[in-house]
Design a protein that fits this description.
Shape: globular
CATH topology: ABC transporter involved in vitamin B12 uptake, BtuC
Number of strands: 0
CATH class: Mainly Alpha
Structural class: mainly alpha
Length: 372
């Protein structure tokens, strides 16, 4: 019985992100009700439009692709104790390299091969941008939170320069590059929609990442470095090299998000083509508890929240600020839930004391009954 209670308590802790989301939605319902709208109708419209409508679900999948990849780019380094706040900048660099490969390589290259080259180029761009703070962290001891955060803005402004300068489409009303030829567009998952192959790629990559981290030596090394760097060094692991490689891999995955945005959705390199997917990836990673197999679930929820928000706004007449507040509440409550950690030793001792107390009370009750 004690083991059953222990498992129940542990499960409650493991699902703390889910409780945080439910609490955020409840507070959001109060906000919706305060505007005079019906919160039940609002949420019904939101989730129906995001997941049960053909075009609404395609919009969800379109947003799912960059968020799931950004979530993996954040979750993987965190397993190694590294905070990658720079997924947004890595997305932009991936988009730049992919656009350059699509626009400036010879058209004589076969379409399928050219698409693969674009994908590799985008991953390379993100890897370079991720490796820089990784190197500074590993070999110079510079805090990666600061470097990755600041490099976001460097990457954004760098793409703005190229989109409005060397790669600018002449006569365009907005900073963007010429259109990528149609042979290089990613295959579409749902006909007559923008949902593309990137969503499926992100799902498969999440499963492969989970397998690698759980069943391979590389995953064991990653977790060891994150849990105890000193023990990792004692075991002969090159911690510095591991940090550099991990950040490069994370940058490559985020770069793929930018790649798929360019060759799967925008078909050009736009100024500010990402609306903050790199930061959404941070939320997705923490909401999934840094578990790669759960990142697609959290990414699907966040992308559905974004996709269904417009329909909810139209259906119940909500202002856009209320919708943004609900999304912000999810982030706040999920972040707050991280403060609650499961302490197995404490709960085992608590249940043992509780069990001993119950046994003592039961014995005393039996003695009193016998006397009576």
């Amino acid at each position: 019985m004690r083991n059953v209670r222990f498992r129940i308590i542990r499960t409650i802790y493991l699902l703390r992100s889910g409780w945080a989301v439910l609490l955020a939605l409840m507070v959001g319902a109060v906000l919706i009700a305060s505007t005079g709208a019906d919160p039940i109708l609002a949420y019904k419209t939101l989730f129906k439009g995001a997941f049960f409508d053909y075009y609404g679900f395609s919009d969800t999948l379109t947003k799912f692709s960059p968020i799931v990849l950004a979530g993996l780019a954040v979750a993987i380094p965190l397993r190694s104790g590294i905070y990658n706040i720079g997924a947004e900048g890595q997305i932009y660099l991936g988009g730049l390299f992919a656009a350059a490969a699509a626009l400036y390589l010879p058209d004589s290259i076969p379409g399928t091969l050219h698409i693969i080259i674009c994908i590799v180029a985008g991953a390379l761009g993100g890897a370079i941008w991720g490796a820089i703070p990784g190197f500074l962290k590993a070999y110079r001891g510079i805090n990666e939170v600061i470097t990755t955060l600041l490099m976001n803005y460097v990457g954004i402004f760098l793409i703005s320069y190229f989109a409005g300068g060397p790669m600018f489409q002449k006569g365009a009303p907005y900073p963007y590059s010429p259109e990528i030829r149609k042979e290089l567009w990613l295959p579409v998952l749902m006909p007559r929609t923008d949902a593309h192959f990137g969503a499926l790629f992100g799902l498969v990559l999440a499963v492969l990442t989970w397998i690698v981290l759980r069943y391979t030596t590389a995953g064991f090394v990653l977790d060891t470095v994150g849990k105890n760097p000193l023990a990792a060094r004692y075991a002969g692991i090159n911690v510095r090299r591991q940090i550099l490689i991990t950040m490069a891999i994370a940058g490559a995955i985020a770069g793929l998000a930018g790649t798929f945005e360019v060759i799967g959705l925008k078909y050009r390199l736009y100024h500010l083509f990402s609306p903050g997917y790199g930061f959404d990836g941070i939320v997705a990673a923490f909401l999934a508890g840094l578990n790669p197999i759960l990142v697609p679930v959290s990414a699907l929820f966040l992308s559905g929240l974004k996709a269904g928000a417009q329909g909810m706004q139209r259906a119940v007449g909500l202002q856009s600020t209320v919708v943004e507040a609900i999304q912000g509440l999810v982030i706040i409550f999920v972040a707050a839930s991280l403060a609650f950690r499961f302490d197995a030793v404490y709960w085992r001792r608590f249940l043992e004391r509780r069990s001993s107390l119950n046994e003592a009370l039961a014995l005393e009750a039996d003695q009193l009954t016998d006397r009576a």
